[in-house]
Amino acid sequence: AVDNKANTMTTRLPAETLVMFSGGNLRRLWADYVLTSQKNSLSPIKPEKLRSGFKDYLGLDFDRDLLSWMGGEFAVSVIPQVPNKDFPQDVRAALVFMVQASDKRKAQTSLKQLDDAMRNQYQFKVKEDKVGEIPVTRWIGPGGTLTATHGWLDGDIAFLTLGAPITDKIIPKPKNILANAASFQQAVPSELDPTNTQFFFDIEGAAKSLSLPALFPAKQNFLNALNSVGVTTAVTDSRTTRYDILLKLKKGEQPVVLPTPKQKKE
Questions:
Q1: Disulfide-capable partner of 229 in 162, 186, 201, 207 (CB 3.0 to 4.6 Å)?
Q2: How would you write the chain as a 3-class SS string?
Q3: What is the reported pTM?
């Protein structure tokens, strides 16, 4: 399908967002991934394992109960939070998921099933609350620590946050948005418009704010060399997708004057 609709999620996220992956249709993206991953041993996520995990731990059918209503634009992001006395010092960010529901009634049913699973299977306290004028549902762990919050933005945008409490950064809609942030504009290629997917990773900001895991053996060399990574894709026809990838390198030290070659002795 020639469809490029990943255009608005960067306006819903705050400028300090460290990582973001967005797309125009999560249901279609997943269907395409399932097809390509079946014969690819290097695929990072095995569809059947993900499906069985949702069924075993939450009692939900991943495709029927969740993906079926996620036919709109989406974003997965990491937003930092300054540690405070009300939240553990080792939790410094939240994972934030937003998706435009193509069937809000079915989405509401699925979210209620999630609430019931957290309450009945894992003894979480499920509490109705408000952020400003927006109703939200909070999951509070047995120890009293806020674990997750979900609700609706602009009527049909469902959101779920996991980790540090950052709902005040997305409700109301932030004034300083990611789309206008210098770190984002300098990192993500902008020639393709509209886009199918976008990826942004503020490596320098994440290294300062978070304790990054050892993703690969040469992690420190990677961190020392790069400021950010940005990727933009667009479907150009029924057989072609274009990928623009931009690596922003850190500037090195001022080079010294090279020595002149020694004169060969006659």
A1: 201
A2: CCCCCCCCHHHCCECCCCEEEEECCHHHHHHHHHHHHCCCCCCCCCHHHHHHHHHHHHCCCHHHHHHHHCCCCEEEEEEECCCCCCCCCCCCEEEEEEEECCCHHHHHHHHHHHHHHHHHCCCCEEEEEEECCEEEEEEECCCCCEEEEEEEECCCEEEEEEECCCHHHHCCCCCCEHHHCHHHHHHCCCCCCCCCEEEEEEHHHHHHHCCCCCCCCCHHHHHHHEEEEEEEEEEEECCEEEEEEEEEECCCCCCCCCCCCCCCCC
A3: 0.88
